[in-house]
What does this fold into?
Amino acid sequence: MRTLIHHEVPRRADRPPAVTPHEHRGSDARWPMPRGLEAGEVSRLLTMLLEAYDGRRPVPQIRGLVAPEVLASLSGPHLARPRHRLCRVHVCPPAPGVIEACARVEVAGRSIALAARFVRTPAGWQCVRFALLKPGHPVQAQRRAAA
It folds into this structure.
C-alpha cells in the first residue's frame, strides 16, 4: 500500500509537535504559557458564560474559566430567564495578555450588548469582567439628553 498524498492525514512521525521542546523549556514555569485566544474560542467561552447565566449550564462547570467575582455574580439564585443567544462577537487585544470582547445578544426578540474581559494567567485564560448591558427606559434617556 502507498499513501495517497492529497487524501490522507500525515503519519504521526510527519506531524509537527503541538509544543516544541524549545517553547516548553523557554520559561521557568512547569507548563508553557497559554497561546492567544481566537475569535471563535472567545465566542465559545461567551456562549458557555451565557448558558451559566441562563441556568442552562451548572456554574461549577465554568469555575476555572472565570475570576471569583464573576463566579459570585453567576452563582446567585437562578430565576426562570429567557434564553440569551450570542449573535455577533468583536474581539480586541488592548494589551499583551488581555482580550476584550463585545457582542450582540438576542433575548426575547430584543438585542442587548455584552462586554467581557479575558486575562491570561499561568493556568490559562480567565474572564475577569462579564456584563450584559441592558437598554434603559426611554424616558430616562430623554431626560439625560435634555439636561
In short: The first helix runs from residue 21 to 25.
